[in-house]
Design a protein that fits this description.
Elements (H helix, E strand, L loop, with lengths): L1 E5 L3 H13 L4 E5 L11 E4 L1 H10 L1 H9 L2 E3 L2 E5 L2 E5 L4 E5 H14 L3 E3 L16 E4 L6 H4 L2 H4 L1 E15 L6 E8 L2 E11 L2 E8 L1 H7 L6 H11 L1 H4 L4 E2 L12 E8 L3 E2 L2 E3 L14 H16 L6 H31 L9 H9 L7 H7 L1 H15 L15 E3 L2 E3 L3 E3 L14 H12 L4 E3 L3 E2 L16 H17 L3 E7 L26 E2 L13 E2 L2 H21 L3 E6 L4 H6 L14 H18 L6 E6 L11 H13 L4 E5 L17 H11 L3 E4 L5 H9 L5 E4 L1 H5 L3 H8 L12 H22 L1
Parallel strand pairs: 1-2, 1-9, 2-8, 5-11, 9-17, 20-21, 20-30, 21-23, 22-23, 23-26, 24-25, 26-27, 27-28, 28-29, 29-30
Antiparallel strand pairs: 3-7, 4-7, 5-6, 10-13, 10-14, 10-15, 11-12, 12-13, 16-17, 18-19
The structure holds flavin-adenine dinucleotide and flavin mononucleotide.
C-alpha cells in the first residue's frame, strides 16, 4: 500500500514502523510540519502494560526506549504545608523528544521516508494519490477538522488553564504541588523523565489565571511568574518552555477533549490524538496513540480482510478501550476543575481523594501499592469516626457513624426497595422475613420501602402504608425483631406517590396504570407521568395541608412503632419530587417557578415532620440530584442548594439518588454512577450524604468513604440476592469485629477461612 502519515508524533511514526514490520513492501511517507528535534512537551509516562505491548510489537525500538526509561515509585502531594508521600505507584517515563528521535531512527531504518518542515494541507489533491492517508496530526488535526461531519467530531474545551514546562530540577517522586495564593489555588504536576530533566505542568482555574494576569503576559513573563510561585520546589532551577519555535503552539492552553463518532472517511483514517484525547493528568495520550498504531497496522495486514472489515474490527476493539480511558480522564479532569470542593479536607484525605480521582485506583489497589500508607488513611478515618477513641486500621465501611444520638455500627445501608407485597398497606410475614433477614446480614442501617402516608398516596395496591393502627402494630413487630436480633438501625421511608400513583405491582409493569380500580392522583401540576398515566389534579392549598398532616401523622406512628430514623422521599418523580423538578412543576403561584418556590412545599412538609420527630433521632431526605435532562431539569448546582435547604430545616443526611423524575430522562449509567452527585452535595454543600447507585463491591464502598464522597453507602439490588452482603464483605476483608448473629458464627468463620485460602492461592498463582 502507498500510505501518507500526516504528523511525526508517536501515532504517525509508530504506525509507519508497525506497518513496515508487517510488510516491508508498503510505501510509507511521514510528513511533519516542524523540523526534526523540535516538538512540544517534555516527558511522557508509560504503564507496564504499554511497555508489554510495544515490546511484543517491535522489540528493537522497545529495547532502546525501555533502556532510557526513568523509573519512580512515590507520589508526593504537597498541600497546606504538608508533604504526603505514598509509594508503590511504579511509573516509567521518557522525554518526548527522545522518544520521537528513537522512533524516527527506527522508521528510517525500516525504509519509511520522513519529510520535515512539510506543512500538509488537507485540500491538496496529492492525497488522492495515496491508498491511505493517516491523519496522525494531533489534537488540532486539520485533516479531521476539514470534514467534521464525516468524522462526527465532538470537542469539549475544558475549564482550567495549563502550561507544559520543563526544568532541570530532578524530582524523585511524581510530585503534585498545590499552592494557595492571593488569586486562588495554582498547582504543578511534576515528574522526572531523564537523569537531568523533569516535566513541570502548571495548572489553575481560568479565574485564577486571569487574576494573575497570565492572559496579558508574554511567555517569558509567565514562566518567570511560575518560577516565583513554585520557587520552594525548584531549588533555584529555572523553568523552560520548548513551544516557542513550534508552528501552531501557545504557552497556556485549555485541554480539549476530543471524541469522534467515526475514525475513517474516504481514504483518511484518524489516529491518536486526532481521533480522541485523554487529559494529561492521567498520562495516557501517548499510550493510546501507540496502541492505536499497533492495532491499525495489525488489522490492515491481516490476510483476507477487506479495508472496510479491517476498519470495523479496529474501531470495535479500540473504541471500548478509548471510552474507558476517556471516562477515567473525565473524572480526573473534573477533580482538578472542582478542586475548591476538596479544600476543606485534611492533607491525608486530600491526597487520598487525588489518588483515587479517576476511579481507576481503588482502596484495595492502594493497599497493594503501599499497605502502610493505606493503613495510615484507615487509622485516620477511624479516629475521626470515633472522636479519637479508635486507633484501628480496619476498612472504612466498618467505621461507625453518629447522626444525632443514633450511632450506626457500620456505613453500609440496605437501600429502600418497594416489594409490592402488602395488602391494604399492612406489612406482613414477607416484609418481616425480608427486612429481618437483611438486618441479620450485617448492614448498619436498613431502610423500609417507600411507605405511603395514605391509601391514595400508594404507588400500587401492594405498597406498605402508615396511616392506621394495624400498620403501626405490623411495623412494630418488624422493628422489634431487628432491634432484638441485630445491631442494625431501621429507618422508615415515608412518601406519597403523586403523579406516579395508582399503578400496577412492579413486576406487572413499571408505572403502568391499573387495569381497573384506579384512584385519582394529584401532583404539583397537571403533568401526567406519561401519555398512558392519569392527568394528575394540581394540588390546592387544602390538599397541601391534608397531605402535610398525613406525613406528620405517619411520623408519629413511626415513633410508636419504634423506628430509629425517618426518611422523607422527595425523589423519583413522586409527589414532593413533582414540586421540585421544573419538568413537572408548572405552577405560577408561590409553589412554582424559582427553585426557592418549588422547594417551598416539600420544605414545609419536612419541617412539620421534623417538629413531630424527637430531637435526638435523625432524619434524612431522598432527592433526585439531577433529572438527567440537562439544563431543563434540576441541575447538579441546584441539587447542592436543595441539600442545603433541607439541612437548614434539620435534615441530618441527604440520600442522593438521581432521575426517575421524567419519562424521557437520559441517564448515564456505570459503576457508582450517582456518587459524583453525592460528592458534590457533601463537599460543596457541607452536608452529610449517602451515596447509592450501582455500588456493589466492598472496594467501591471503602473508596467512596475514605475519599469523602459520602458518609454512608447504600446498596439496593445487591441486597436483593445477597442479604448478607456486609458479612460477606467482612469475611472477604478479614474484618473480625463485625457483629455476627451468634446462630451464624460458624458459617462466618468458615467463609472467612475459605476466602482467605482462595486469596492466598490466587496470589501464589500470580507470583
Ligand atoms: C500538557 C500535556 C501533557 C501530556 N502528558 C502526557 C503524558 O505524560 N503521557 C502521555 O502518554 N501523553 C501525554 N500527553 C499527551 C500526548 O502528548 C499525546 O496524547 C500524544 O502526543 C499523541 O500523539 P499523536 O501522535 O497522536 O499526536 P502529537 O504528538 O500531537 O503529534 C502530532 C504531530 O503532527 C504534526 N502536525 C500537526 N498538523 C500538521 C500538519 N498540518 N502538517 C504536518 N504536520 C502536522 C505536529 O507538529 C505533531 O508533531 C500530554 C499532552 C499534554 C498537552
Ligand atoms: C425493586 C426495587 C424497589 C425500589 N424501591 C424504592 C423505594 O421504595 N424507595 C426508594 O427511594 N428507592 C427505591 N428503589 C431504588 C433503590 O433504593 C436504589 O436507589 C436503586 O436501586 C439504585 O441502587 P442499586 O444500584 O444498589 O440497586 C428501588 C429499587 C429497586 C431495585
Amino acid at each position: 500500500m502507498k500510505i501518507a502519515c500526516i504528523g511525526a508524533g508517536p501515532a504517525g511514526l509508530y504506525f509507519a514502523i508497525s506497518m513496515k514490520l508487517r510488510d516491508p513492501g508498503h510505501e510509507i511517507e511521514v510528513f511533519e510540519r516542524n523540523p526534526p528535534g523540535v516538538t512540544f512537551g517534555w516527558g511522557v509516562v508509560f504503564s507496564d502494560l504499554t511497555v508489554d505491548n510495544i515490546s511484543r510489537n517491535d522489540p528493537v525500538s522497545a529495547k532502546t526506549i525501555t533502556g532510557e526509561f526513568a523509573h519512580w515509585d512515590d507520589i508526593d502531594v504537597h498541600y497546606r504545608g504538608q508533604c504526603i508521600t505514598s509509594g508503590g505507584h511504579g511509573f516509567i517515563g521518557i522525554g518526548r523528544k527522545r522518544l520521537l528521535e528513537i522512533l524516527q531512527d527506527r522508521a528510517r531504518k525500516l525504509g519509511v521516508t520522513l519529510h520535515f518542515e512539510a506543512e500538509c494541507d488537507p485540500a491538496d489533491p496529492k492525497w488522492r494519490g495515496y491508498d491511505l492517508v493517516i491523519a496522525s496530526d494531533g489534537a488540532n488535526s486539520r485533516f479531521r477538522d476539514a470534514a467534521p461531519d464525516a468524522f462526527g467530531v465532538d470537542v469539549d474545551v475544558r475549564r482550567n488553564k495549563f502550561v507544559w514546562l520543563g526544568t532541570s530540577k530532578v524530582f524523585d517522586a511524581f510530585t503534585f504541588a498545590f499552592e494557595e495564593t492571593e488569586h486562588g489555588w495554582i498547582w504543578a504536576h511534576a515528574y522526572r523523565f531523564a537523569p537531568d530533566c523533569s516535566t513541570f505542568i502548571v495548572e489553575c482555574s481560568e479565574e485564577t489565571w486571569a487574576k494573575f494576569g497570565f492572559d496579558r503576559m508574554s511567555q517569558d513573563e509567565s514562566i518567570a511568574a511560575c518560577e516565583k510561585l513554585f520557587a520552594k520546589y525548584l531549588d533555584g532551577h529555572s523553568l523552560q518552555s520548548n513551544s516557542t519555535h513550534l508552528v501552531g503552539s501557545a504557552a497556556w492552553l485549555n485541554f480539549r477533549r476530543i471524541k469522534c463518532e467515526r475514525w475513517a472517511s474516504g481514504n483518511v483514517i484518524l489516529l491518536g490524538d486526532a481521533a480522541h484525547t485523554a487529559h494529561f493528568s492521567i498520562g495516557s495520550g501517548t499510550k493510546l496513540a501507540l496502541e492505536d498504531a499497533i492495532k491499525l497496522a495489525e488489522v490492515l495486514n491481516r490476510d483476507g480482510l477487506s479495508l472496510e472489515a479491517a476498519m470495523d474490527e479496529y474501531v470495535a476493539e479500540r473504541n471500548l478501550e478509548v471510552l474507558k480511558l476517556q471516562n477515567s480522564a473525565r473524572n480526573s479532569t473534573e477533580w482538578f476543575e472542582t478542586l475548591e470542593r476538596y479544600l476543606h479536607f485534611e492533607p491525608l484525605q486530600f491526597a487520598y481523594s487525588l489518588l483515587t480521582r479517576s476511579q481507576r485506583i481503588s482502596h484495595e489497589n492502594l493497599r497493594l501499592r503501599d499497605r502502610e500508607w493505606l493503613e495510615g488513611v484507615e487509622r485516620w478515618f477511624w479516629k475521626r469516626a470515633t472522636d479519637g477513641r479508635s486507633n484501628t486500621t480496619a476498612p472504612p465501611m466498618f467505621a461507625p457513624l453518629k447522626l444525632r444520638e443514633m450511632e450506626v455500627e457500620n456505613r453500609i445501608t440496605v437501600s429502600p426497595m418497594a416489594m409490592y407485597s402488602a395488602l391494604d398497606g399492612v406489612p406482613n410475614d414477607f416484609h418481616f422475613v425480608h427486612l429481618g433477614e437483611r438486618a441479620l446480614g450485617g448492614a448498619g442501617l436498613v431502610f423500609t420501602e417507600m411507605t405511603c402516608v395514605s391509601p391514595g398516596g400508594r404507588i400500587s395496591p401492594g405498597c406498605t402504608g402508615m396511616w392506621n393502627a394495624d400498620h403501626v402494630a405490623a411495623w412494630k413487630r418488624i422493628v422489634d425483631f431487628v432491634h432484638a436480633n441485630s445491631k442494625a438501625k431501621i429507618c422508615l421511608q415515608l412518601g406519597h406517590s403523586g403523579p406516579k400513583g395508582s399503578t400496577k405491582l412492579g413486576w406487572e409493569g413499571n408505572d403502568v396504570p391499573l387495569d381497573e380500580g384506579n384512584w385519582p392522583v394529584m401532583a404539583a401540576s397537571d403533568v401526567p407521568w406519561s401519555p398512558a398515566n392519569q392527568v394528575p389534579r394540581p394540588m390546592t392549598r387544602a390538599d397541601m395541608d391534608a397531605v402535610r398532616d398525613e406525613f406528620v401523622a405517619a411520623v408519629r406512628m413511626g415513633l410508636e412503632a419504634g423506628f430509629d430514623m425517618i426518611e422523607l422521599h422527595a425523589a423519583h418523580g413522586y409527589l414532593l419530587s413533582s414540586f421540585i423538578t421544573p419538568l413537572q412543576n408548572r405552577r405560577t403561584d408561590e409553589y412554582g417557578g424559582s427553585l426557592e418556590k418549588r422547594l417551598r412545599y416539600p420544605l414545609e412538609v419536612f419541617a412539620a415532620m421534623r417538629a413531630a420527630w424527637p430531637k435526638d433521632r435523625p432524619m434524612s431526605v431522598r432527592i433526585s440530584a439531577t433529572d438527567w435532562a440537562g439544563e431543563d431539569g434540576v441541575t447538579p448546582e441546584e441539587a447542592v442548594a436543595i441539600g442545603e435547604a433541607f439541612a437548614r430545616e434539620g435534615a441530618d443526611l441527604i440520600d442522593v439518588s438521581a432521575g426517575q423524575t421524567w419519562a424521557d430522562q437520559q441517564p448515564v449509567y456505570g459503576r457508582m454512577f450517582q456518587t459524583p452527585f453525592s460528592d458534590k452535595i457533601r463537599n460543596e454543600g457541607r452536608v452529610a450524604t449517602m451515596a447509592v447507585g450501582n455500588i456493589y463491591e466492598p472496594d467501591h464502598a471503602n473508596s467512596i468513604l475514605a475519599a469523602g464522597r459520602a458518609d454512608l453507602v447504600a446498596l439496593a439490588r445487591p441486597h436483593l440476592v445477597d442479604p448478607f452482603w456486609t458479612l460477606r464483605a467482612a469475611a472477604q476483608l478479614d474484618y473480625r469485629d463485625v457483629h455476627v448473629p451468634p446462630q451464624y458464627l460458624n458459617g462466618m468463620s468458615q467463609l472467612a477461612r475459605n476466602l482467605k485460602r482462595e486469596a492466598e492461592a490466587a496470589a501464589a498463582l500470580r507470583v
